[in-house]
Amino acid sequence: MYIKRLRIKNYKSFLDSGEIEVKKDIFAFIGQNNTGKSAILDSIQVFFPKCKKTIAGGDFHKNTTEDINIEICFGGVDEDYLASTVYNDKIEKQNIKIKELFKKYENEQDEKILSQIQKQQEKLDELKSTEYSSAVDKYKIYDDELYINMVASKGGKITKKYYNKQDEELKDADLNKILPEIKVIPALRDPKTESTAGNNSYLKDLIQMLDEESKTNITLEGNILSYNEINEVLSEETKRRCNSLAESITSYYNQAVGGNEFKVVIDASVNISKGTTYYTTITDQTTGISNDILNCGTGYQSMIILSILETYVQISQSQTQYILLIEEPEVYLHPELQRRMIDTLIRISDNNQVVFTSHSPITVSKLAGDNIKLVEKQNGEARILCISPKKIINELGIKPDDILYYKGIIFVEGKDDYEVVVSLINKIDNNLIDKINVIQAHSCQNLKFYANAELLMNINFNIPVLILRDSDVKDPNVLKESLYGEIAATLLEEPQFLDFEEEELTNKKDKLKSSIYVLLEHSIEYYFIEDKFLYEFASDLEELNCAIECYECQYRKQLREALNGNNQVNNFEAYFQPKRFLKGYPDAKERDREYKEKSFKDRWERLSDDCQCENKYKIDNYLKVRDEIIENVKRIYISENSFFKYIINKHSLDILKESKLNEVIQLVQGLIDEIRN
């Protein structure tokens, strides 16, 4: 569940913000000081009933007597989400009954018990259906969207009420059931108002977020424990987890400051009735001096926050559960650490929505145009505006250091492309890993925006640039010409180019065209479908080779037909793109994956009669090996976070160059050679 649209009326500097479209992954509000950026994050906080921030009389816009209205439309409120939040307890009770019956059947082998299991399963299905319909009706959910209007009124005291789409009042208890958790990192991290152990500490919330992701070692083995024994077991277990978390945070922190003299210590005590209290200190091991982290300066705190978030990325395997609200995540961070901060936030946004404010061109340079809004103030009223590359540059200001820090820039589309390129840079020359800015555009549509922003800043600096995109189901040469045309046409409208002589302008256009490369294959995943990369994920090498041959046969045939217009592009994307071989359907909703897998196998089995592979294994073998690979690759994602990074790190550069991946290696190597020269 995530914020999809937001509207603020009569709150602080906003008379009426208008409807603000917010992206589900990461979203930034930029602008100069005192324009209203913080008011947006504050409005989200006061909206949530459990949040500590309250509305004061001075928060009403220009002291108006009109009500404050904060309207939020949430997306992703589907059946799976409702089952995991609103009526999860009822489903769990029914699941327990079914599990107990299965155990009983295992012991007694009585066919009557199977009948009981069937009835209880039918009850579970009926329960899910009934509860889902009830929740949809109660909250007035339409198309997996939930609209809620918070109304705050002045009077003897300020009151808040909540209404659904049909103006029916919703109680706080009902909202607390369905709304996601928010985690807030303020810009003013003041030691006077913050305490690691305090109830209002943002740092306590972050540590708890980490702690909730950590695995426990608690085993009770059927023993009945007293209240005090349970409390003691939980306390010891929490301390163990905190020690492990502190080691990871310490490692990332020392990387950030460039030394090994600091140690972060997290201690915790558990009281079942009151919750967990965390005590967090940082020790300079050369002097032995320790301080509560929240008594340190804002710069130190920013580095601790970065270290905590990097640790969260390292250990987290959960689905979307938080909305992170962060004011100025880059505050007092060196440019290199700012880049690490935004990279970390982007990775966190894979599974959690991140909304932040920023003054940093470095931070927002890795976001697409649709993921940024500009906040301006006119006549005392804040306004939300769309942005362009030029607006970002004019509003935030671009210093030469922001560009010259980097020796090269690479634009890629998605997360997998990013992981591959960064891993290859590290493999070829790890001294350049922090000197080449790899920007993830999230989609091919965003590449034009990114390229314009970076190239506008790059006019007077001769920095090598590589714009890399997938060919998808299109001709690579046509795609290159199209992308070049879009970027060049936009750039030539900028006044910076009016001063160039024709020859100089032609040179710049030629350089731009030479910097664009479209992969010869559908997508980056294709380059990893090789026996030398996949042998450890399959039980039989011969079967693996035959499965790859079978896939190659259909991949070529179906792609050719799609390019010629004899096959629907959607058909190729659904059943034959390389991602389906290695990952299955990770991009589909969990409830749809089983259906999509069945549809996938049905489609491939229909190809059995005209399979042209010249080996003894056919489609059945391909499907069997694919299932095995997907299951084993999942384990890599759990332990390593990236299958592609794992493969590149495991093999020598010479081995990688002997594979299909050499096409990408040569591109990265070319940019590195240009930097070295």
Automatic annotation (TrEMBL):
Pfam families in UniProt: AAA_15 (PF13175)
Keywords linked to the UniProt accession: Coiled coil
Signal peptide range in chain numbering: none
Domain Endonuclease GajA/Old nuclease/RecF-like AAA: start-end pairs: 1-362
InterPro entries in the record: AAA_GajA/Old/RecF-like, Bact_Antivir_Def_Nuclease, P-loop_NTPase
Coiled-coil portions: 88-130
PANTHER family linked to this entry: ATP/GTP PHOSPHATASE, ATP_GTP PHOSPHATASE
Stated name of the protein: Chromosome partition protein Smc
The organism of origin for this protein: Clostridium formicaceticum
Gene: smc_4
